[in-house]
Amino acid sequence: MNMGGNMKRDIDIAPDQHAFVMLGERTLFLCHITMFHAEEHRFQMVLRATLPAYAMQAYVDDRAAHPDETYFLGNSVQDLITVPSLQAGVRKAFIADIFRGIPKELHYLSWPWEHSAPLVAQVPLTIDRIVYARHFDFGLEYPQDLTYIVFGSGDESHLTHYQVKEPDYDHVLSLRGAPAWLPPLALESSVHLNFPNLHQTMPYCFNPLPEAVYEVTYAGLPQLYTIEVGKTHWFSTKMLNEHDPCPEHEGP
Predict the structure, then answer these.
(1) What pTM was estimated for this model as a whole?
(2) Tens-digit pLDDT profile for residues 130-143
(3) Could you give the CA distance from residue 194 to residue 224 in angstroms, rounded to a whole number?
(4) Is 133 left (phi over 0), alpha (psi -120 to 50) or beta?
Protein backbone atom coordinates (compact mmCIF):
# COMPACT_ATOMS: atom_id res chain seq x y z
CA MET A 1 0.00 0.00 0.00
CA ASN A 2 1.26 3.44 -0.90
CA MET A 3 1.22 5.44 2.35
CA GLY A 4 2.46 8.61 0.69
CA GLY A 5 0.56 11.78 -0.07
CA ASN A 6 -0.01 10.73 -3.68
CA MET A 7 -1.97 7.59 -2.78
CA LYS A 8 -4.55 6.81 -5.48
CA ARG A 9 -8.12 6.54 -4.20
CA ASP A 10 -10.68 4.19 -5.71
CA ILE A 11 -13.48 6.68 -5.04
CA ASP A 12 -12.99 9.84 -7.03
CA ILE A 13 -15.55 12.65 -6.78
CA ALA A 14 -14.48 15.14 -9.42
CA PRO A 15 -15.51 18.82 -9.44
CA ASP A 16 -18.32 19.32 -11.93
CA GLN A 17 -21.33 21.43 -12.83
CA HIS A 18 -24.40 20.67 -10.73
CA ALA A 19 -28.01 21.54 -11.55
CA PHE A 20 -30.63 22.45 -8.97
CA VAL A 21 -34.39 23.02 -9.19
CA MET A 22 -35.19 26.50 -7.83
CA LEU A 23 -38.03 26.71 -5.30
CA GLY A 24 -39.63 29.56 -3.39
CA GLU A 25 -40.13 33.24 -4.03
CA ARG A 26 -39.48 34.68 -0.58
CA THR A 27 -36.97 32.07 0.57
CA LEU A 28 -34.82 30.33 -2.03
CA PHE A 29 -34.34 26.59 -1.84
CA LEU A 30 -32.29 24.53 -4.28
CA CYS A 31 -32.99 20.85 -4.90
CA HIS A 32 -30.07 18.94 -6.43
CA ILE A 33 -30.80 16.94 -9.60
CA THR A 34 -29.47 13.46 -8.91
CA MET A 35 -27.87 10.81 -11.15
CA PHE A 36 -27.38 7.27 -9.85
CA HIS A 37 -24.75 6.43 -12.46
CA ALA A 38 -22.32 9.29 -11.79
CA GLU A 39 -20.47 9.41 -8.47
CA GLU A 40 -20.29 13.22 -8.59
CA HIS A 41 -24.11 13.42 -8.70
CA ARG A 42 -24.98 10.44 -6.48
CA PHE A 43 -26.28 12.73 -3.72
CA GLN A 44 -29.72 13.89 -2.67
CA MET A 45 -29.39 17.43 -1.36
CA VAL A 46 -31.51 20.48 -0.55
CA LEU A 47 -29.89 23.86 0.08
CA ARG A 48 -31.24 27.10 1.46
CA ALA A 49 -29.43 29.88 -0.38
CA THR A 50 -29.35 33.61 -1.06
CA LEU A 51 -28.94 35.49 -4.33
CA PRO A 52 -28.21 39.21 -4.69
CA ALA A 53 -31.43 41.23 -4.69
CA TYR A 54 -31.27 42.02 -8.41
CA ALA A 55 -30.92 38.34 -9.37
CA MET A 56 -33.65 37.15 -7.00
CA GLN A 57 -36.01 39.81 -8.32
CA ALA A 58 -35.27 38.87 -11.94
CA TYR A 59 -36.06 35.24 -11.14
CA VAL A 60 -39.28 36.08 -9.23
CA ASP A 61 -40.50 38.46 -11.95
CA ASP A 62 -39.80 35.98 -14.73
CA ARG A 63 -41.52 33.18 -12.82
CA ALA A 64 -44.61 35.36 -12.40
CA ALA A 65 -44.63 35.95 -16.17
CA HIS A 66 -44.13 32.23 -16.92
CA PRO A 67 -45.99 30.36 -14.14
CA ASP A 68 -45.89 27.00 -15.95
CA GLU A 69 -42.11 26.98 -16.32
CA THR A 70 -39.54 25.35 -14.06
CA TYR A 71 -36.41 27.28 -13.11
CA PHE A 72 -32.97 25.78 -12.71
CA LEU A 73 -29.74 27.04 -11.23
CA GLY A 74 -26.29 25.64 -11.89
CA ASN A 75 -22.76 26.52 -10.95
CA SER A 76 -20.76 28.12 -13.74
CA VAL A 77 -18.36 26.07 -15.82
CA GLN A 78 -15.71 28.51 -14.56
CA ASP A 79 -16.52 27.55 -10.94
CA LEU A 80 -16.73 23.76 -10.61
CA ILE A 81 -17.75 22.24 -7.27
CA THR A 82 -18.33 18.91 -5.52
CA VAL A 83 -21.33 18.08 -3.36
CA PRO A 84 -19.11 16.93 -0.44
CA SER A 85 -17.44 20.36 -0.44
CA LEU A 86 -20.89 21.90 0.10
CA GLN A 87 -21.82 19.37 2.79
CA ALA A 88 -18.56 19.88 4.66
CA GLY A 89 -18.83 23.67 4.50
CA VAL A 90 -15.61 23.98 2.51
CA ARG A 91 -17.58 25.78 -0.21
CA LYS A 92 -20.11 28.29 1.08
CA ALA A 93 -20.64 30.15 -2.20
CA PHE A 94 -20.26 29.71 -5.93
CA ILE A 95 -20.88 31.54 -9.19
CA ALA A 96 -24.22 30.50 -10.70
CA ASP A 97 -26.35 30.78 -13.82
CA ILE A 98 -30.16 30.73 -13.78
CA PHE A 99 -32.20 29.11 -16.56
CA ARG A 100 -35.87 29.03 -17.46
CA GLY A 101 -36.77 25.47 -18.45
CA ILE A 102 -34.51 22.68 -19.67
CA PRO A 103 -33.77 21.65 -23.27
CA LYS A 104 -35.39 18.33 -24.19
CA GLU A 105 -32.82 15.76 -25.28
CA LEU A 106 -33.06 12.07 -26.10
CA HIS A 107 -30.06 11.48 -23.84
CA TYR A 108 -28.40 13.89 -21.41
CA LEU A 109 -24.70 13.24 -21.95
CA SER A 110 -23.42 16.74 -21.17
CA TRP A 111 -24.51 19.97 -19.48
CA PRO A 112 -28.10 20.49 -20.74
CA TRP A 113 -27.77 24.27 -21.04
CA GLU A 114 -24.42 24.21 -22.81
CA HIS A 115 -25.88 26.09 -25.78
CA SER A 116 -28.56 28.09 -23.88
CA ALA A 117 -28.33 31.70 -22.75
CA PRO A 118 -29.00 32.04 -18.99
CA LEU A 119 -31.85 34.16 -17.69
CA VAL A 120 -29.32 35.54 -15.19
CA ALA A 121 -25.63 34.83 -15.74
CA GLN A 122 -22.58 34.74 -13.49
CA VAL A 123 -24.35 35.65 -10.26
CA PRO A 124 -22.75 35.02 -6.84
CA LEU A 125 -24.79 32.62 -4.72
CA THR A 126 -24.34 32.19 -0.97
CA ILE A 127 -25.29 28.94 0.75
CA ASP A 128 -27.16 29.74 3.96
CA ARG A 129 -27.26 26.14 5.17
CA ILE A 130 -27.68 22.50 4.21
CA VAL A 131 -31.33 21.51 4.69
CA TYR A 132 -30.99 17.85 3.70
CA ALA A 133 -28.11 15.80 2.33
CA ARG A 134 -27.17 12.17 1.92
CA HIS A 135 -25.06 10.03 -0.36
CA PHE A 136 -27.01 7.13 -1.89
CA ASP A 137 -26.56 3.70 -0.34
CA PHE A 138 -27.65 1.11 -2.90
CA GLY A 139 -27.77 -1.55 -0.18
CA LEU A 140 -30.93 0.03 1.22
CA GLU A 141 -34.42 -1.07 0.19
CA TYR A 142 -37.34 1.09 -0.91
CA PRO A 143 -39.68 2.25 1.86
CA GLN A 144 -42.96 0.35 1.99
CA ASP A 145 -44.94 3.50 1.24
CA LEU A 146 -44.04 6.43 -0.99
CA THR A 147 -41.83 8.72 1.05
CA TYR A 148 -41.06 12.39 0.42
CA ILE A 149 -38.94 15.00 2.17
CA VAL A 150 -40.83 18.14 3.16
CA PHE A 151 -38.99 21.42 3.71
CA GLY A 152 -39.60 25.15 3.47
CA SER A 153 -39.90 28.40 5.37
CA GLY A 154 -42.81 30.55 6.48
CA ASP A 155 -45.82 29.86 4.29
CA GLU A 156 -43.75 28.27 1.50
CA SER A 157 -43.20 24.52 1.58
CA HIS A 158 -41.96 21.92 -0.88
CA LEU A 159 -41.55 18.18 -1.35
CA THR A 160 -38.90 16.05 -3.02
CA HIS A 161 -39.18 12.30 -3.45
CA TYR A 162 -36.96 10.16 -1.23
CA GLN A 163 -34.88 8.27 -3.80
CA VAL A 164 -33.20 4.94 -3.14
CA LYS A 165 -31.70 3.12 -6.14
CA GLU A 166 -32.32 2.29 -9.77
CA PRO A 167 -35.06 2.22 -10.95
CA ASP A 168 -36.53 5.28 -9.25
CA TYR A 169 -37.90 8.70 -10.08
CA ASP A 170 -36.97 12.29 -9.27
CA HIS A 171 -39.94 14.46 -8.27
CA VAL A 172 -39.87 18.02 -6.90
CA LEU A 173 -43.07 19.93 -6.14
CA SER A 174 -44.50 22.69 -3.98
CA LEU A 175 -47.39 22.55 -1.54
CA ARG A 176 -50.21 25.06 -1.31
CA GLY A 177 -48.85 26.70 1.81
CA ALA A 178 -47.11 25.20 4.81
CA PRO A 179 -48.96 22.41 6.67
CA ALA A 180 -50.48 23.99 9.77
CA TRP A 181 -49.86 20.80 11.79
CA LEU A 182 -46.09 20.81 11.14
CA PRO A 183 -43.96 22.89 13.56
CA PRO A 184 -42.10 25.68 11.72
CA LEU A 185 -38.68 24.45 12.83
CA ALA A 186 -39.50 20.93 11.58
CA LEU A 187 -40.33 22.44 8.21
CA GLU A 188 -37.11 24.46 8.22
CA SER A 189 -35.00 21.43 9.09
CA SER A 190 -36.87 18.95 6.80
CA VAL A 191 -38.65 15.73 7.78
CA HIS A 192 -39.97 12.65 5.99
CA LEU A 193 -43.64 12.30 5.04
CA ASN A 194 -45.12 8.96 4.03
CA PHE A 195 -48.11 8.31 1.76
CA PRO A 196 -49.77 5.23 3.33
CA ASN A 197 -52.21 4.79 0.44
CA LEU A 198 -49.44 4.80 -2.19
CA HIS A 199 -47.06 1.87 -2.17
CA GLN A 200 -43.52 2.13 -3.44
CA THR A 201 -43.98 0.19 -6.68
CA MET A 202 -41.24 1.03 -9.16
CA PRO A 203 -40.99 2.44 -11.66
CA TYR A 204 -43.40 5.35 -11.65
CA CYS A 205 -43.44 6.78 -15.16
CA PHE A 206 -45.88 9.56 -14.30
CA ASN A 207 -46.36 11.98 -11.42
CA PRO A 208 -47.80 9.80 -8.62
CA LEU A 209 -49.39 12.81 -6.87
CA PRO A 210 -51.88 14.27 -9.37
CA GLU A 211 -54.62 14.97 -6.80
CA ALA A 212 -55.04 18.17 -4.81
CA VAL A 213 -55.21 16.65 -1.31
CA TYR A 214 -53.46 13.66 0.28
CA GLU A 215 -53.30 12.01 3.65
CA VAL A 216 -49.76 11.51 4.96
CA THR A 217 -48.01 10.29 8.06
CA TYR A 218 -45.15 12.07 9.78
CA ALA A 219 -41.91 10.04 9.81
CA GLY A 220 -43.72 6.70 9.81
CA LEU A 221 -45.91 7.38 12.85
CA PRO A 222 -49.56 6.23 12.65
CA GLN A 223 -51.31 9.63 12.95
CA LEU A 224 -52.77 10.86 9.64
CA TYR A 225 -52.39 14.46 8.48
CA THR A 226 -53.48 16.33 5.35
CA ILE A 227 -51.40 18.19 2.77
CA GLU A 228 -52.48 20.20 -0.27
CA VAL A 229 -50.39 19.63 -3.38
CA GLY A 230 -49.41 22.51 -5.65
CA LYS A 231 -47.18 22.74 -8.70
CA THR A 232 -44.86 19.97 -9.85
CA HIS A 233 -41.58 21.59 -10.87
CA TRP A 234 -39.64 18.51 -11.94
CA PHE A 235 -40.45 14.88 -12.66
CA SER A 236 -37.85 12.70 -14.34
CA THR A 237 -36.77 9.11 -14.79
CA LYS A 238 -34.37 9.82 -17.66
CA MET A 239 -31.84 11.95 -15.79
CA LEU A 240 -31.78 9.89 -12.61
CA ASN A 241 -31.39 6.34 -13.91
CA GLU A 242 -28.58 4.93 -16.01
CA HIS A 243 -31.18 2.91 -17.91
CA ASP A 244 -34.41 4.88 -18.26
CA PRO A 245 -37.28 2.62 -17.10
CA CYS A 246 -39.78 4.78 -19.00
CA PRO A 247 -38.16 5.44 -22.41
CA GLU A 248 -41.53 5.67 -24.17
CA HIS A 249 -42.37 8.89 -22.34
CA GLU A 250 -41.13 12.19 -23.69
CA GLY A 251 -39.43 14.87 -21.66
CA PRO A 252 -36.58 14.78 -19.15
Answers:
(1) 0.93
(2) 999 999 999 999 99
(3) 10
(4) beta
